[in-house]
Amino acid sequence: MNVAPGKNAVSTIPFDHARVDRLMEEAGIDVLLATSKHNTQYLLGGYRFIFFAAMDAIGHSRYLPIIVYERGGPDHAAYIGNRMEGAEHQNNPFWTPTFHAACWGTLDAANLAVEHLTKIGKGDARIGIEPAFLPSDAYTLIRKALPDAKLIDATDMLERMRAIKTDAELEKLRIASELITDSMLATIRWAREGTTKTEIIEQLRREETNRGAHFEYCLLTLGASHNRAGSPQAWKKGEVMSIDSGGNYHGYIGDLCRMGILGEPDAELEDLLAEVETVQQAAFSKVRAGTLGGDMISYAEGVLKASKVAPYTDFFAHGMGLITHEAPFLMTNHPVTYDGTYAKKPLEKNMVLSVETTMLHPTRGFIKLEDTLAVTETGYAMFGDRGRGWNRGGAS
């Protein structure tokens, strides 16, 4: 299926195309070839093909969606997708003036991208690609077919594109966080003495799914253990539970951590969680538009350094949105391998942060809080802001 170019592309573009054009110009990119699921979803205004939502492989190849977007030329934009996506277009037309629903693999998708680039006169342009999301066979085909083109890594440019969320994106992130929080608290109440980690994780999956979230993972500890993988380990009276879950709502991530206790927390546990909360609040106090990202990090780290739990406690913060770690990147290789490129840049309104303080106590176990904040002009808005103390197990 090949839909011919239309006349009103600019009026229907679902993103700030002037800002994207500016970012492309700064990166020296004439035309984009976006090939990752998250960036094609962003550029299509939230659409992701359900058939390949949980997998990519098919036959001898894989699904490779491609958005072709020319800087300053939205009338030349194209979406290259799977053959079955013609039906999606019939029900909810894509904004791109050209749409090819013709592919089953990487090479036919890459061929159509080359044909489109040539047709719009960009066969020798500076083409932005996603190296980590462009299969080698597709890359080789494009490189050979367009020998005069300059292929540029567009990863940073695309990350900057997604860093500032729209109100609609913030609402999806809020809903995702609320659904995950509600699911974790319900799971803690459901779990009882003798309930295993495997059973708890499965219950959380059901809770999230029943609420309309897409379950992705649960990192769970019980008792004094720091092991967060699923196992037959059973919850015992007086033990703590750390439940850290990631799920998404329409592709946008909810990622939070809450604490449970089977029984009543003793004074030491109350004190330990209060130490974690103190570090979290220190970080929160520095979150507002205009504050340097690194200043928020250094202030929270300073508060942690002065704490008695510092030897076995870690602080971390990162951006999040369509993926769990995205701009703003605030810390270098801690723990995920990337550069903290935003540490010396001011936080901006509608950026979204995950803030987490993790204690690996030598005898009481894994004690952690992880929260999601949207940056505002005067501070922040917190999503899923409840259950941040000790939540009692077996209460349902």
Give the structure's gist in a few sentences.
By secondary structure, this protein is an alpha+beta fold.
Q: What are the salient characteristics of this protein?
A:
single chain; 396 residues; alpha+beta; 33% helix; hydrolase
Task: Describe the protein.
The chain has 396 residues and is α+β, with helices and mostly antiparallel strands. It contains eleven helices and 17 strands. The strands form four sheets. The protein has a seven-stranded mixed β-sheet with strand order 1-7-6-5-2-8-9, with helices on both faces. It has a four-stranded mixed β-sheet with strand order 10-11-12-17. A hairpin with a 2-residue loop joins β3 (57-58) and β4 (61-62). α2 packs antiparallel against α7 (155-163) and α8 crosses α9. The N and C termini lie far apart (53 Å). InterPro entries: Creatin/AminoP/Spt16_N (IPR029149), Creatinase/aminopeptidase-like (IPR036005), Creatinase_N (IPR000587), Pept_M24 (IPR000994), Peptidase_M24B (IPR050659). Pfam families: Creatinase_N, Peptidase_M24. Residues 171-377 form the Peptidase M24 domain. It comes from Mesorhizobium escarrei. Keywords: Aminopeptidase, Hydrolase, Protease.
